[in-house]
Amino acid sequence: MNVENIDSVLHEERLFEPSSDFVKSATINSAESLAALRRAADDDYQGFWAKLARDEISWHKPFSNVLDESNAPHYQWFNDGLMNVSYNCLDRHLQTRGDNTAIVFEGEKGDITSLTYRDLHAQVCTFANALKAQGVVKGDRVVIYMPMTPEAVVAMQACARIGAIHSVVFGGFSGESLKDRIEDAGAKMLITADGGNRGGKIVELKQAADKALASGCASIESVIVFKRTGHNVEFNRDRDVWWHNAIEGMDSVCEPEWVEAEHPLFLLYTSGSTGKPKGIQHSSAGYLLNSILTMKWVFDIKDDDIYWCTADVGWITGHTYVAYGPLAVGSTALIYEGAPTVPDNGRFWDICQRHKVTIFYTAPTAIRALMKSGDEIPAKYDLSSIRLLGTVGEPINPEAWIWYHKVIGGARCPIVDTWWQTETGANMIAPVPGAVATKPGSCTLPLPGIIADVVDEEGNSITTPDKGGYLVIRKPWPSMLRTIWGDDERYVSTYWPKFDGKFYLAGDSARRDKDGYFWIMGRIDDVLNVSGHRLGTMEVESALVAHPRVAEAAVVGRPDEIKGEAIFAYVVLRGDRPEDGIDEALTKELRAWVSEQIGPIAKPDDIRYADNLPKTRSGKIMRRLLRTIAKGEEITQDTSTLENEAILLQLQGKV
Length: 655
Ligand code: PRX
What we know:
The radius of gyration is 24 Å and the shape is globular. The longest helix is centred in the first third of the chain and has 17 residues, at 117-133. With 655 residues, it is of the alpha/beta class. Bound molecules: adenosine-5'-monophosphate-propyl ester. Residues 270, 316-317, 392-395, 417-422, 443, 506-508, 520, 523, 529, 534 line the site of adenosine-5'-monophosphate-propyl ester.
């Protein structure tokens, strides 16, 4: 456990009330109406969720069971109801909003497409029929490895429509990572593209997919390939079919498959504290419910909003706030294919100006990077359409928060700092912007019905202000993960290991201030947060030791001004340590190696060579010591148990 994360260091006192303009049009516009929602949840927890589920979801067969706790912690919600997520995102809007824009897409090269709800519905139905024609049936797993184009959303929605379980793999992951995820899920089909445009280059998705399939993935029967870039790629006619050929002649009507509320909607792999990513399994109705509610409560979504969440569909944020939430509430979602730096650091603001974005949701890493490029760039654009800003994925430092507030939000837009996880499915702790004043760096208060707490080792609620502890959720909520795919035991031991299995353990430490506001302090496990993306230290270590020259490796995080955390690797080689600990060619090779094994986001920023790693007498790597060294801080830990104290100098890069 990262005990150093339990001590609070940050104290921020500024309070920002929402402007009267914002409050005037906000759906929840007073502390009283928010308090009434919280009271309703306190008075009758199940009744609260049941009413919302009836109001917000269109059911094919209504549910009568609300929460089934008989197999806890495998909780079930609304489990005798039947519904379909794609129906809820598309069909139910056709009468009222069929001609409204569902998706506005901008490619990195500037190509723009706009799809109405009717267009999107037709595309999803057509593609769903193509999936069926390829033999995909309810319950089959389909892996999606796509660029950020509307077709990625079409593929996800089409799976949902026929009850197939999608597992989206981020396009920045390598063929090796793709293979692991395909194999773990036992996927029958892979949907990919010839490539995508990012950073002025082509992301070679098909090439990586071919590599994955050449080295395993026996369960894959066919591959659908969307033509995005049009450059030459290998094509295996026995296995691959072009998207445009697969949909040829398909009907644009496809009756949704009515699935049980608990039917898995998707798996999404995320890092934990072992080397093997976990397939987080989400449900259909419960997931959809919190997606809808948070669109309304946190993003205050209205019919005329242009909502832009910059996350890739390969992450949970891109699931809930690109592919499902905005559509379920019938709003307009903007999708951008590429990097924020093409052609220059003004791209995001240029898109906001041209498409009149009203709600903008991004990660602190992006905010910090764009802040660094100066105020002159955003000043060139008219950002007055924006009325609400959001952040997600990592703690935001007050300096970046204030910049975002002033320079991007013109000091008029509330900022919703949303704490949540792949596992929670939707925002959990976040401001309801018309009713809660914000503080830079705090995700503020849990949403109605989310019973979050900060507890000590014994599971007692910590009431002393600013004292850190474990962040837990005391009651099951509809969009919680259901299990880890194929590994119920790991689900129980990871999320319910302490406190007699009574609380969901988030894996973060947090504190509450005197006003009860939550401040996330960091992970308590060996999970890194690089640019808002989760990576297990063990995953990077496993990749490193798979290199023929590496005998042992230990990976820790160190603070990074832009990325939040950077990856610091200590490596013991087979054979001799390089002279003076420097071997630039090998360092380059190892970085490229990790990139190939996992993906570019996992590349170590620093690699330091030592004769051995610091271990306790019982053989445990002294990670805390390694973290101290990585931060360049003075060593205060007891190092007397070290077998070879001389290696301290090597680890510090001094010899
Ligand atoms: O440590 C917390 C951090 O990101 C972790 C979840 O990562 P992931 O499952 O990849 O989902 C990211 C997008 C929801 C959390 O355990 N985290 C997420 N949001 C915040 C945050 N840390 C501080 N403030 C946040 N708003």
